[in-house]
Amino acid sequence: MSSPSSPSSPSHPDAAGPQTVPGSPPPPAGYRDLLRNREFAGLYAGFTLTVAAGTLSGFALGTLVDRQTRSPFLTAVSMYGAAFATVLGALTLMSVADGHRPRRTLVTLQCAALAGTAVQAVPGLPLAARFGLLLVLGFFQSLGTGARMGLLAEVVPVRAYALARSLMNITSGGTAVLGYAAGALLLRRLSPHGVFGAAAVLAGVALAVVAVTVREHSARPARRLGLRQTWAANAELFSRPGGRVLLLNLWVPNGLVVGCEALFLSYAPRHAGALLAAGSAGMLLGDLTVGRLLDAGRRRRYAFALRLLLAVPYLLFAARPPVPVLVVAVGVAGAGFAATLPLQERLLALTPEAVRGQVQGVESAGRMTWQGIGAALAGATAQWIGPGAAIVTLAAVSVAVTVASRPFVARAGAQRP
Fold first, then answer.
1. How many CA atoms lie less than 13 Å away from 185 in the CB half-sphere?
2. What is the pLDDT of residue 221?
3. What pLDDT sits at residue 21?
4. Using an 8 Å Cβ cutoff, are 192 and 60 in contact?
5. Residue 16: its pLDDT value, please?
């Protein structure tokens, strides 16, 4: 995915975000520099607390549904079903992410998330109502992601965008792991409703942090928002070959590999925890290395190799090697998830400022939706050919998509905004 110039190159003044000008402070060199930016620190802290609240809430809901229904399907849907609802936001009202008062929009969406989580804490609420709330929260989550990422592109310099996304990706994965562990510990002392209450407290703190630290970016031009505007911007996004191929590579290979991970429990029930932990560790290490240690030029050069790394190690499942070998392979593959960083940088560079939040919201919602699709495809395939063969099949398709789309990704990289 090479291009004549970086997405942050000064030769493209409208590429993405604020540019470095003579006499301005140098771009952040590390995570500590980023966190000295009060607005970024607020967005980051609010994001972390929101992820923690969502993890606790999902764990509590899954536990409650399992205890009441003993249905593995309903339990899985209750824990991950919100991912499917994010696509509803991407298709309907994602244009609100680019309103001329983004702080007000984000605070309002955080209020809605807080209210939905608090209602889940009500004892005796019917399961149908809980699943309805799950869809509503997924919808607001997708809009909130768009608004947050739109603000992120405004509060950090363009050359620090990948660094900021890297930090948020690392934190998201780590917070999810800690959130599930904390949920298990809390359930020893609290009921699921009590865990919902703890999640609501975290959501409330996230709301307060964002409200106090993030300022209103009222310099955005006022524009009409709603269903028609969302569809128009989405149609424009998908009408451009560069945007289409970048979204394809952000969604499909990742989603298929997540489908591989969804089969660990069926493939090796006693070792599934080690495999999942290895994948998470690889993902964190990959984001840390690619986001922190590589500059934009090297991220572009290594993007194709990282996309291959994401799936190729899973082909080892065809030989059924010992579990320790598979643990190493899955950890190595996890580093390939860092390929999203250079792809996201290029997508941002090709996005007009007026719809930047909406496009990033669509990208995030589509990625989450494809993770759900990948898990569903993996489960259906495993029903016919077994989990090991299904893992190899999905990994092979992921590699095929990456290889077949490489020329188009390179072409997208050469496009000017």
1. 7
2. 52
3. 42
4. yes
5. 37
Q: What pLDDT shows up at residue 257?
A: 92
Q: What are the φ and ψ backbone dihedral angles of 350, each rounded to 5 degrees?
A: -90, 0
DSSP label of 121: T
Distance CA 311, CA 403 (A): 11
Q: What is the predicted pLDDT for the residue at 70?
A: 72
The pTM of the full predicted model, rounded to 2 decimals, is: 0.66
Residue 169 burial class via C-beta count within 10 angstroms: exposed 0-12, middle 13-18, buried 19 and up: buried
Structure tokens at 291: 């986001």
CA angle 160/282/51 to nearest 5° reads: 65
Res 19: pLDDT: 41
The parts of the chain modelled with pLDDT lower than 50 are 1-24
Q: Please give the Cα distance from 378 to 380 (Å, whole number).
A: 5
Are the C-beta atoms of 347 and 412 separated by less than 8 Å? Answer: no
Instruction: Output the 3-class SS for the chain.
Output: CCCCCCCCCCCCCCCCCCCCCCCCCCCCCCHHHHHCCHHHHHHHHHHHHHHHHHHHHHHHHHHHHHHHHCCHHHHHHHHHCHHHHHHHHHHCCHHHHHCCCHHHHHHHHHHHHHHHHHHHCCCCCCHHHHHHHHHHHHHHHHHHHHHHHHHHHHHCCHHHHHHHHHHHHHHHHHHHHHHHHHHHHHCCCCCHHHHHHHHHHHHHHHHHHHHHHCCCCCCCCCCCCCHHHHHHHHHHHHHCHHHHHHHHHHHHHHHHHHHHHHCHHHHCHHHHHHHHHHHHHHHHHHHHHHHHHCCHHHHHHHHHHHHHHHHHHHHHHHHCCCHHHHHHHHHHHHHHHHHHHHHHHHHHHCCCHHHHHHHHHHHHHHHHHHHHHHHHHHHHHHHHHCHHHHHHHHHHHHHHHHHHHHHHHHHHHHCCC
CB 147 within 8 A of CB 356: no
At 22 the pLDDT is 44
Please provide residue 272's backbone torsions phi and psi, each rounded to the nearest 5 degrees: -60, -35
Tens digit of pLDDT for each residue in 204-215?
999 999 999 988
Which tokens hold the place of 49? 């607390």
